[in-house]
Amino acid sequence: MSTLLKSHRQAIEKAIIVGLVVTFIITLLLALFNQPVHDNSLQALAVADINQTGVTNIVTAVLLNYRAYDTFIEFSVFLCVAIAVLPYILEVPVVKFQLHTESQVLLIAKAFIPLTIVMAGYLLWIGSSKPGGAFQAAALLAGCLVLLSLANVRVIDFTKLGYRLLMSSGVLAFSVAILLFYLESQAFIKFPVELAGASILAIEFFATFAIALILFLCFESINKGHA
Amino acid sequence: MLDSLITTFVSTYSIPVLIVLPVVIAVICFVVGNITLSRIVSVVSGIFLVITCLLQAGYVLQQTAAIELVVGNWQPPLGIRLSVNEFSAIMLLMTSTIGLAITFYSTKYFNSDDKEVRFWPLWWFLITALNGIFISSDIFNTYIMLELLGLTAVSLIAIQGTQQALQASFQYLLVGLFGSLMYLLGVAIIYRTYGVLDNQLIANMVENNLSMQLALVLITLGMMMKCALFPLHFWLPSAHSNASAPVSAMLSALVVKAAFFILFTFWFEILTAVVTTAAVTVMGIFGAMAVIYGSYRAFTSPRLKQLIAYSTVAQIGYLFLAFPLMIATPELARTAVIYFIVAHGCAKAAMFLAAGVIQKTMGHDQLSQLQGIATKLPLSIFIFAVTSASLIGLPPSGGFIAKWLLLNNAVEADQWWWVLTLFIGGLLASAYLFRVLNLAFTTPENKDGSEEKFHTVSMVSESKLLGAVGLSIITIVIGLNAMWLTNLITSSY
């Protein structure tokens, strides 16, 4: 019996996993078909109050006003990842970077980066009324940095205090906004209606740079961190 | 005058302080990158957090009313509600107190600047996440906090940098992500059905149907993984025993308790309509198995920190013994659970800190070579002994009261068979803990060279254990003042 178990161990494991997954899927489907979907009254509520949020795009309103607390913690999650993957904090090992003049990647970079930065700016700006915002803009900026890094241009020295400050600027700007408005109105994460649009844009502006840097850092830590 | 000031502080400011302060400190520690400054800032704000939580707990337990805060004045279901009830107030107080003890210890623990410079910001994010879980009253917000908790815990294990630590942290990352995703799927099912995310609103609407049963199963599986309930405990011993001592202490004392807190809230506050007697009994059986299996593995562990980690697996089991008792005698069982969490948290944190000193002094933590350390490290062994008494459940420690409450409760609920687990668990705990103490007090045999080797490790400062001494005193004090504490907890329902 035990030898049989040993020799077919993989097959048995597979069978168990397949069995569990199938049972789970069947239960999930049954559960979903048995229960009607909610009446979506929440969306109506969100739309009804949108003129008090300072933005007109409902997704941005949810992310940075109704549930801004979640986003605040989400920024902290990003920063925490940055601290974990940052290859060197105190001192940097000597690595020589050579600039290959006119390598093809550099050519592409030269052509695309200015355009991409403009696009990122537009995405950030449009976030208040249409789909867009800090995360999308940051992804574009990070793309620029990756392109530069592939062209062997060293733009960022992560051991510098300034870059650490920039990486935490999203959280920092958010904290400052929270503290200022808290002292004024005694309400936690409440933007006054007339300042809401501006504060959300300011927070998103800093968050864009922070997230872009952190995304790039994740790329760098795999690419060069262990060199 | 002072009274009204305190009341205003607690009711309006104390909840945001619990989140904003740790985040700001984390950012400061990260940006400045200066160890001396990080240490000073951390100790000062650690003390401030303890005072805040003390005032808050006093307020909540005296007023017998939860403090509530609606974020951004957007009433649920649109916004997020935060609340501190008696359970979370005690959890928060425990987090800040144990946090302060470990903070103090960590200022003198690390011998590498690079490790320490990473440690402080991650440490404060970990405290943010713990506070966030205990105050959250929104199931999606809890998920975000879980994410922060998981990532910081993984990173904190990984900064140890050894091969085993990296492997353990990677496994922990995968387990944690899997657990979080199960939780998220459960949340998605709940949201699809009722369209709200607030704990209270869901509790008012929930009915016993297949969707909710599935949601509860998913959330339970996810949280069982995160709090390492047998048989999903496999990742815990390597993760907790390979991390650095302050991190192990925090993981064992608080991080697993946060997952338990969520699980407990879901079973007995949010999805109560779905919970059946059969389900709670199954959880109780898992708990009983965890007690016996964990204790057995602790007894056979070759390494000190591994022994303590397996002991955590066993002690988590006791918490689940309260599940079947929650149906018959909810108030008693709740008090027992809260008491047990506090007693175990303080004892386990202090024990890991003492083990850290032992490991650092000896250069290893192989049990077979720890003979006679009691003469070299008297304070560490003293802490180990006191906390052992609490884990075994000897009077007058907090652990004794916690077990006594459970025992009393099991008899009251006519489910005497759980008492057997308590006895067996206590006996096994004394077996594995006395194994260490016995070795510590044995004089090592004089072999050639061994004497000399022993002298080289004799000069070690145990002053960093001040916080751990504080925690072991707490385990005794809460044992001696048991009536006062249990009355406070019970009267606040």
UniProtKB/TrEMBL annotation, chain A:
Residues 108-213 form the Na+/H+ antiporter MnhB subunit-related protein domain. Its main location: membrane. InterPro entries: CPA3_antiporter_subunitB (IPR050622), MnhB (IPR007182). This is Na+/H+ antiporter MnhB subunit-related protein domain-containing protein. It holds the Pfam family MnhB. Keywords: Cell membrane, Membrane, Transmembrane, Transmembrane helix. The chain crosses the membrane at residues 12-33, 72-95, 107-127, 133-153, 165-183, 195-219. Belongs to the CPA3 antiporters (TC 2.A.63) subunit B family. The keyword Membrane applies. It is a multi-pass membrane protein. The keyword Lipid metabolism does not apply. It is found in: Cell membrane.
